[in-house]
């Protein structure tokens, strides 16, 4: 976890900070309170940031690509500068793209992540989960985040891109650098990122694939065409970085948070272990209740939301996890109901940026839970206070020590 | 009973296809469309209702 460089938050309605230790440990009471008292909060931190917490407002912003741009989706001390790729393309298409370019960049990726393409990866994913469980078999205590959850999406995406599995540690560091170290001064971040380490790494993999094309996502992107032209190398690189960054921490968080829940709720755990038919609705409910991803936008044009004067260039956090806990939308929103029948949750976003990887993430989460429960139907937290959570816009357990029972 | 997917609103969350593959299919991009001209065969009304109620984009409508 990054060190706390900002003063602790006292008033969440006027001075919130999503890297504050209170938010990191448990943001739900903060959002519940704001939903009742100040549904669009503001903070001067990070140069000015807004925070709508109701489902209705989160949806409205996600749908309004005119007043809100995706040019940068991670709130930090740095805003995109004059040297960064301009709208509507942005640094990492399609997540940082706006219409009309967004649809083009997104369309390229969709076939590789369609439900039918993803179904083909299920046996591999299952084998991988079993291997991880074999490696810890017989241990009375396991860190379910470190020894299990984090490896699954990492290895699957490395496999899809056709990168060497030995590079898993390098990937992990990149992801941390981009997503978790936001609570740093501008100079520190510049040092980490402008050093261009990620670009260099990717360019080396691209060169290998150019020399020897393969049947993987990297070759697919290199050979893909837009209007009869190959993609710009910057576009390919940006998209590959996006897939690494967007696919790994997120799914790791979803798997970890689900196991964290099951470790503390024996009834849910027993039901799920004995009734496989419950799995599809349970996966959606766990995604709703513990949605890991909060997105961000920059205000593109001055705009008023419920009387709040948003100015061009302000940040806006888009907390899908808070939308998913809105009692106006979900009865008993703070309760996990594994067979919840009506569940229009927004864990994967809303509107044109709907997570491209959602079918993959769902499959990984379902298979990871199925295999874990098959091997370890009974487990509990060793010490609830030993669980640590990531800081930043992707939230999930980063250490999750559990005791295997019986 | 009929179901209809508004292709403009559908963003390919695939909830409908997962809940009611008898009523919906998805194209290569993962966007959904109704099967059988949207006619809901007897016995599948509840599945149709569930699909409508779970679409995050409110892209599915139901009519008699
Ligand atoms: C549980 C796991 C995941 C969650 C909760 C999640 C969540 C999200 C959310 C909320 C967005 C919307 C961004 C926005 O509105 O600006 C998004 C976009 C995206 N996600 Fe995921 N994601 C997950 C896993 C993955 C995986 C496994 C991949 C791919 C390997 C992936 C790739 C993407 C891409 C490419 C986008 C950009 C889509 C666009 O801008 O059109 N995600 N994700
Ligand atoms: S659930 Fe809605 S958005 Fe998702 S595929 Fe079906 S119609 Fe489209």
Q: How many distinct domains of chain B?
A: 1
What is the CATH topology classification name of chain A?
A: Cytochrome p450
Whole-number tally of structural domains of chain A = 1
Ends of chain A: how far apart?
A: 33 Å
Q: What would you call the quaternary organization?
A: heterodimer
Mean pLDDT score of chain A: 91
Average pLDDT for all residues of chain B: 96
Any descriptors?
heterodimer, A: 406 residues, alpha+beta, Cytochrome p450, five-stranded mixed beta sheet, three-stranded antiparallel beta sheet, 47% helix, 11% strand, B: 64 residues, two-stranded antiparallel sheet, 2 helices, binds protoporphyrin IX containing FE
Can you walk through the features of this model?
The complex is a heterodimer of chains A (406) and B (64). Chain A has 406 residues and is an alpha+beta fold. Chain A has a single domain (21-404), classed as Cytochrome P450 (Cytochrome p450, Orthogonal Bundle). Chain A is built from 18 helices and 14 strands. The model of chain A has no long low-confidence stretch (mean pLDDT 91). By secondary structure, chain B is α+β, with helices and mostly antiparallel strands. Helices cover 23% and strands 22% of the residues of chain B. Chain B contains two helices and four strands, in the order βαββαβ. Chain B has a two-stranded antiparallel ribbon. In chain B, strands 2-3 form a two-stranded antiparallel sheet. In chain B, a hairpin with a 5-residue loop joins β2 and β3. The longest helix of chain B has 10 residues, at 45-54. The A-B interface holds A 107, 110-111, 113-116, 280, 284, 341-346, 348, 350-352, 354, 358-359 and B 11-15, 17-19, 26-30, 50, 53-58. Iron/sulfur cluster (SF4) is lined by residues 5, 10-16, 32, 55, 57, 59-60 of chain B.
């Amino acid at each position: 976890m990054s060190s706390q460089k900002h003063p602790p938050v006292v008033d969440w309605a006027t001075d919130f900070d999503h890297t504050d230790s209170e938010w990191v440990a448990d943001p739900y009471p903060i959002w519940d309170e704001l939903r009742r008292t100040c549904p669009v909060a503001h903070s001067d931190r990070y140069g000015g940031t807004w925070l709508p917490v109701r489902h209705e407002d989160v949806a409205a912003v996600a749908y309004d690509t005119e007043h809100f741009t995706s040019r940068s989706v991670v709130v930090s001390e740095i805003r995109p500068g004059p040297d960064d790729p301009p709208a509507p393309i942005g640094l990492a298409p399609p997540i940082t793209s706006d219409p009309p370019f967004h649809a083009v960049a997104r369309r390229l990726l969709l076939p590789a992540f369609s439900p039918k393409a993803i179904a083909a990866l299920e046996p591999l994913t299952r084998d991988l989960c079993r291997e991880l469980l074999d490696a810890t078999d017989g241990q009375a205590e396991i860190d379910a985040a470190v020894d299990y959850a984090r490896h699954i999406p990492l290895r699957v995406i490395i496999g899809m891109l056709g990168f060497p599995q030995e590079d898993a540690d390098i990937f992990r560091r990149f992801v941390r650098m981009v997503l978790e170290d936001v609570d740093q001064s501008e100079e520190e971040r510049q040092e980490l990122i402008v050093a261009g380490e990620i670009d260099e790494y990717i360019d080396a993999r691209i060169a290998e694939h150019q020399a020897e094309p393969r049947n993987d996502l990297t070759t697919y992107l290199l050979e893909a065409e837009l209007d009869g032209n190959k993609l710009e190398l910057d576009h390919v690189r940006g998209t590959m970085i996006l897939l690494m960054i967007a696919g790994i921490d997120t799914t790791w968080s979803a798997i970890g948070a689900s196991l964290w829940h099951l470790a503390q709720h024996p009834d849910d755990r027993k039901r799920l272990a004995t009734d496989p038919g419950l799995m599809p609705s349970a996966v959606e409910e766990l995604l709703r209740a513990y949605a890991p991803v909060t997105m961000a936008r920059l205000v593109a044009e001055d705009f008023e939301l419920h009387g709040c004067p948003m100015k061009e260039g302000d940040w806006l956090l888009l907390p899908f996890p808070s939308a998913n806990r809105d009692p106006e939308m979900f009865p008993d929103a703070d309760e996990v109901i594994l067979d919840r029948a009506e569940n229009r949750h927004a864990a994967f976003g809303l509107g044109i940026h709907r997570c491209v990887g959602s079918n993959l993430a769902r499959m990984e989460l379902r298979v990871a839970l199925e295999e874990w429960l098959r091997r370890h139907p009974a487990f509990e937290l060793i010490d609830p206070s030993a669980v640590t959570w990531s800081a930043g816009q992707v939230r999930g357990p980063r250490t999750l020590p559990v005791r295997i029972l019986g | 009973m009929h179901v209809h997917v508004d292709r403009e609103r559908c963003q390919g969350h695939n909830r409908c296809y997962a809940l009611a593959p008898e009523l919906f299919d998805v194209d290569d991009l993962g966007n959904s469309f109704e099967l059988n001209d949207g006619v809901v065969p007897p016995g599948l009304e509840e599945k149709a209702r569930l699909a409508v109620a779970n679409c995050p984009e409110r892209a599915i409508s139901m009519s008699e």
